[in-house]
Amino acid sequence: MPATSDNTTSARWQQVARALLRALALAGLALVLLVLLLTLTGQRTGDALRALVNGAGGSWYAMTSVTLVRAIPLALAGLSVSLAFRAGILNIGVEGQLLAGAAAATFAALAAPTLGAAAVPLILMVGALAGAFWAGIAALLRRKFGVLEVISTIMLNYVALHTVGYLVRGPLQEPTRVYPQSFTIDARAQLPVLIPGTRLHWGLVIALVLAFALWWWLRDRAAGFRLRAVGLNARAAFSAGRIDVDRTTMGAFLVSGAIAGVAGATELTGVTYSLYENFSPGYGYTAIAVALLARLHPLSVLVTALLFGALEAGASAMQRDAGVPSVLVQVVEALLILLVLSNEWWQTRHRRLGEAGT
Amino acid sequence: MIDALLEATIRWATPFALAALGECVSERAGVINIGLEGSIIAGALGATVAAGLFGPTAGFAVGAVSGLAVALCFALFAVVMRADQIITGTAITMFALGLTGTLYRVIYGASGVSLTTPTTAAVAIPGLSAIPFVGRALFAQPPITYVLYGLIGLVAWWLARTQSGLALRAVGERPEAAAAAGISPVRVQFAAVLFAGAMAGLAGGTLVLAQAGTFVEQMSAGRGFIAIAIVVLGRWRPLGVAAASLLFGAAYTVQNLFQSLGLSEVPYNLFLAVPYVLTLVVLAAARGAASAPASLGRRQIESH
Amino acid sequence: MIDRHAKGPLPAAAEPSALSLNGISRHFGQVSALSNVSLRVNRGTVHAVLGENGAGKTTLMRVAFGLVKPNAGSIEVRGRTVRLSSPADALQSGIGMVHQHFTLVPAMTVAENVALGGRGLYSAQQWADKVRAIGDRTGLVLDPTARVADLPVSAQQRCEIVKALARDVDVLILDEPTAVLAPDEAQDLLRWMRSYANDGHALVLITHKLRDAIATATDITVLRLGKSVFSGAAGTTNEDELAAAMLGTGLAQPQPASNSHTTGPAPGGKRPAGGADAREPVLSARGVSVRDALGVARLSNVTLNVYPGEIVGVAAVEGAGQRELLRLVSGRLQPTTGQVTLPAHVGFVPEDRQNDALMLDAPLVENIALRGAGARTGRMPWSDFQHATSEIISQYAVKAAGAKVDARTLSGGNQQKLIVGRELANQPPALIVENPTRGLDFRATQAVHTAVRAARDAGTAVVLYSSDLDEVLSLADRVVVMHSGQLVEVPGDRIAIGRAMLGS
Fold first, then answer.
1. How high is the pLDDT of residue C273?
2. Which partner for A141 in A147, B23, C384, C431 could form a disulfide, CB atoms 3.0-4.6 Å apart?
3. Same structural domain, C268 and C415
4. Are residues C382 and C442 located together in one domain of the fold?
5. Alpha helix (H) ranges present in A146-202?
């Protein structure tokens, strides 16, 4: 997948400008698609749209405590996906890695009272390790047995889902043993709030820092270049660059899993404070759309995650206030991916037609 | 008892075999269709709606058409526009899951009124079903299973004994060779993908009309992806695929068995994970790539 | 000596030609690939189409096979005008094509490959009989049940031809058929073509090899820069005239080039085999064997020493192990047994530049940065790479809009120059090149050859393989031959080397 290339200052500003324009175009397109779908399925379009816009940004609360809060796991998961895709690994398993991170974090939270100030960072690290481990299974299957990571990661998503289902009815279940959800984590295990009076937590900072770190690393470091080279052309990376492709892809896969694990852990410690069955409303899959629409660029991921956060915040409101199934938004997200694919095809069309036949 | 288990195995295996047989044809032509899951769920919803209005046979027909429609979208992007097959497939699956969820709620209301559709009962074939042990298992199944038997034979014969089957195999191995022989790889792949979609649609219909008796969101539960693993295990051959499907049919049979026996020691949720773990084990054991069609998943089919 | 005049060309007006291309023009954007090219191929003749890479032969061939539609001009088969919009049309119109890069399905049998493209049912038995019948009729014998992947290259080519003959073709076009054959095999094929023509068939031989054209053809057409610059009977012309036509008047005295048009050993300037006893080898392989993933032996007990300041040429038929050898001595492949001693950095110019040497969707500067990326730690010094890229672009006259354009925007020749520049930067101790001028036009070919020679002169140890034996002979200081995974140094001439390539 071609990603935008990263050199020199003025080119960078141009890229930023172009990225913002694209984001606006995408947002507009998303709204158009939404209106179309609403009308086609016979919904009350006007009411639905109003609910959507209000739910996404109609109030300070909506913006900080709904949209941004939903954007955080999407940003982290999106970074996870984009890093893997950038290395040529089709990690569709972010959903499962995220759950693994959340589950491990829940376990770790048990130890929170004894950890003092280090509780939260340690819990997040545990989440990262769990996510890396979950991805590692697929990575190992790929390396040792040639198993397509697309299938293995999707299978692992289901395994993670059912494992969580077991955990919240078993070892992690809340004390009264009635509901399929975990105990509430100790206050010392919770991510502090960023802006008082809102639900916006420090996960935002983590997402921002991670995005900038990845951007810098990919552009500036030899290891980052190796990852990009492998994703662009693994054969050339080996032949011309003498790059250890296996090692690079393994590393990328594990780090991708770790970031997804952090996504799960921050969602647990910052928002839900407990693990339960529908912990992830498909963050891992939405993240694929987030990453693709950001053309796998870490900073653009922040923008597209915001867009999708707004869409999903609005979707919940739409369902609640206008009775429109929120799952409609998933259709919009999928259509956006398809439109991006068509756009790429359209762009390269001229190249194909103009190719000399010599 | 054994024959009951065998009968259940084949019953559970039928939708897997249908979807996997279709995917087998698609992959022999060089296209890996991750959007198969989308075709299955679309088929399930289509079958539900049509059966509710016109009965089970119409249900299956509409199910096949719905699956084909989803596959058509996939083919447009992956075959005609040569977009990345994996990404396209993932997007199509998301699209289909979202759309079926939306349509289901719009048509049947968000109240979750449990909806039942007529199911197809088992039909015993006289004579054959009297064979000891396997008679009832093989020949006392819902009609769709007999359709499956016919399709397995048809596809196997077609691949080996017809020029069009030969052409399809060539496209999956080396599209340039097929093009130089006057065959259009794009057309062949397009048709193969549509066939796979129709089969997956039938599989979805089977889930509703021969198993659950109702539609539930996301009821495909990853069967489309498992079907892809089944194709690998079956070494891209129709008979191998059919045999491999039995393995998964057995897994679901065992799962249900333990569930009904109420073994509370082993948690129910972990049992649900068994088919997916099994898929991983199967894929690892089969060591994938060796006998795959040489041009599977290839985006560029350059003309010479 | 090939008998050229057994039946001779039929008088022009006696009957319609088997194939007639009239006034064909084709442009792609601004580039004119063909201008008003005409070709008449009569029954009972071999018509050679001569030209350099980039002259338009490929485009003309693609027009004839329905892969590309001409902007102007018409095509007639046996007097009937035909419109071709696909290879299927061409086949139906009686035009058969034997492609340079085999269009066979390796996993399928000969019978299946020959049968491909038909209608109705497929019967393995029927087609096996047909293959045998064609073998009896034409002398091109094949085992119908053999898997193509298991056949040697010459047999695969036979299969390509049988495939074309299996349909009733009025004219058979062969595109660079001798490119992958050893000299003796090439002679056999040309002889076969001549006798097949003498039986009353029409053949077109597309080639850049002058000698083959003169020895085999009845009529010759020379293309240059998309135009037909010569057209006439083979008996009325000679090598020098044809060479001048192919290369244009400004290059009357060409250097011995790759796609060499002159025969015999390259004139003067060959260095003696580099003082083997006096110096240490830069590259050394001792008793090396390599087995592939399926356990098949690709290299058997190979020993090779390459010294500074020499070009070792590798001569081999496809599949003899040269691919593995080159990757072994460039450090890209590990030996199964035996020992290899290499310097830390060995430059490598692989034959598949798009897949093995370049990241097409990345800017040139990132492609340059690829070299050494595997071992680099710390930051990426982008300004250094920018500088290096600009230097390479100017030194090798790479036509590119700048260092930041994607590699994809460069033509094949410029891509290759960039790669050669990258691999030769900082005077590496060793350089391995594989088919370095494939698909390149004359100028680019010259540039690459000059660079390789300059590296050798500066002390680099070079190992060069080309499927074009003449290119190897014109560049190499000494020649080693690979056959069935074994390596042997062959002193002496083209004939001895050609024999060794076939194992005798």
1. 46
2. A147
3. no
4. no
5. 149-167
When CB atoms are compared, the residue of B82, B97, B288 closest to A148 is B288
Are residues B287 and A145, on separate chains, in Cβ contact within 8 Å? yes
Question: pLDDT class for A343, splitting at 50, 70, 90?
Answer: confident
Say yes or no: C28 contacts chain A, CB-CB below 8 A.
Answer: yes
CATH number of B2-112+139-291: 1.10.3470.10
Domain residues for the domain of C385 are 354-426
Q: Which of A235-239, B222-226, B255-259, C271-275 has the highest mean pLDDT?
A: A235-239
Q: For chain C, say whether B161 makes contact (Cβ under 8 Å).
A: yes
Regarding whether C374 and C294 lie in a shared domain, the answer is no
Q: Which of C97, C64, C264, C98 is nearest to C181 (CA)?
A: C98
- Count of pairs with CB atoms under 8 A, one residue in B, one in C: 77
The string of pLDDT tens digits covering residues B49-87 is: 998 888 889 999 999 999 999 999 999 999 998 888 888
The residue that leads in pLDDT, B126 or A233, is A233
Q: Is A163 within the bounds of a domain? A: yes
Contacts of C67 in chain B (CB under 8 A): 303-304
Q: Tell me the DSSP string of B159-212.
A: HHHBHHHHHHHHHHH-HHHHHHTT--HHHHHHHHHHHHHHHHHHHHHHIIIIII
The DSSP call for residue A201 is B
Are A341 and B88 in contact by the 8 Å Cβ rule? The answer is yes
Domain membership of residue A66 as a residue range:
60-340
Chains that touch B (3 or more CB pairs under 8 A): A, C
Contacts of residue C312, defined as CB under 8 A and 6 or more positions apart, other chains included, come to C304, C306, C461, C462, C463, C464, C476, C477, C478, C479, C480
A11 interfacial to chain C (CB closer than 8 Å) = yes
Contact check, Cβ <8 Å, C374/A241: yes
Task: Check CB contact under 8 Å for A331 and B98.
Answer: yes
- For C247, residues 6+ apart whose C-beta sits below 8 A from its C-beta are C52, C224, C254, C442
pLDDT for res B114: 55
Residue carrying structure tokens 């998301």: B94
* C471 in a structural domain: yes
A105 located within any domain:
yes
pLDDT of amino acid C195:
92
ipTM of the complex: 0.88
B303/C67 touch (CB, cutoff 8 Å), yes or no? yes
The answer to the question of residue A349 being in a domain is: no
Asked whether the beta carbons of residue B163 and residue C99 sit closer than 8 angstroms, the reply is no
Residues of B in contact with C85 (CB under 8 A): none
Q: Per residue in A213-257, pLDDT tens?
A: 999 999 999 999 999 999 999 999 999 999 999 999 999 999 999
Residues of chain A found within 8 Å of residue B269, distances taken between Cβ atoms: 162-163, 165-166, 169
pLDDT at residue A200, as a whole number: 93
pLDDT band for position B265 (cuts 50, 70, 90): low
Domain ranges of chain B: 2-112+139-291
Q: Is residue C212 a part of any domain in this protein? A: yes
- Asked if B92's CB is within 8 angstroms of A334's CB, the reply is yes
> Is A334 in contact with B34 (Cβ distance < 8 A)?
no
Flag whether pLDDT at C203 surpasses 90: yes
